[in-house]
Amino acid sequence: MTGTKAGFIRHLGFVAVMALTGFGLVAGEAASADSTPAKQIFGKVQLPSNSAASPIGFYAKGCMAGAVAIPTDGPTWQAMRLSRNRRWGNPAMIAFLERFSQDAAQLGWGSGILIGDISQPRGGPMLTGHASHQIGLDADIWFTPKPAQPLSAQAREDMPFTSMLDKSKFLTVNSTRWTPTHAKLVMQAASYPQVERVFVNPAIKKKLCDTWTGDRSLLGKVRPVYGHDEHFHIRMHCPPGASGCKAQAPVASGDGCDKSLAWWFTKEPWAKPKPGAKPVKPRFVTLADLPKACAAVLAAPAASEQSATFGTAYVAPQPQTGDAAIQQVINAGSDDLQDTAIPIPLSRPAPQ
Ligand SMILES: [Zn+2]
Fold this sequence. Notes:
Structural class: alpha+beta
CATH topology: Muramoyl-pentapeptide Carboxypeptidase, domain 2
Number of strands: 11
Number of helices: 10
Bound molecules: zinc ion
Shape: globular
Distance between the termini: 41 Å
Radius of gyration: 21 Å
Number of domains: 1
């Protein structure tokens, strides 16, 4: 990247930080702004950029331009925990969720799905939870169906999660809660070509391995991971033409009901740090660690919530003047996307 361009981007980041904090910075404070954790900057943004949709970077290290929101209520879905303001995603994700919700209702999953976190308005790292969900292509779906009577806004804040595990046993699905429809729902999610991976608890993956009689090839997309016993997580492929989006290495062929799954049932993934071991102090990701276009995304003008809510009134923004800055950096910044030091997926033995 040329010095002029780098300076331009640094300027955009500086403007974004000033705009977000609501007060100007004097020269001496600029350095401290650079060390601000990116989650604090992205976590405060209320609205998406008014620009063409673009996932930028990797699922666990990036941001998003031109996000749209899924409406809080639809015929076959409800968005949960509205106060978190995380129902924003790439339009491909939002359109997918609407379609998936219909298919879920059709296969007998209540009257549709309850949708958990997608992404923040401009993506990026979050103040609480989630290593990924940063580029608008990850979404959490509750293992609780949407009830026939819509939940109130308050109920959507307070309704407790229901674990699918029997917590009195080691990594075991609760057979009074888990039903064949749960299995069908997860496998339905894995069935779409635009879905890249589906994350579930290892106990759930094992249950599917032991019981699924449908197309076993789709099981390979269902990946075991910590948590994910109250909800499952759908990850989409980078949409066609999204040049700033860094794809994840494809899943290995096969159903994944192998050594890679067996590893979760050993002590290793659950081992506590040795007594006296020095805790590793995590270094917070800063804006400078993210793809450079993310500073331009922060600096871009906001869309209104209404104009950016998916549905009949939503019109996809066409690339415009403000987008040039974002696109310019995406085009120039392919070096950003070479970073392989990404904390997920978690290390595990190579699948057989
Ligand atoms: Zn998730």
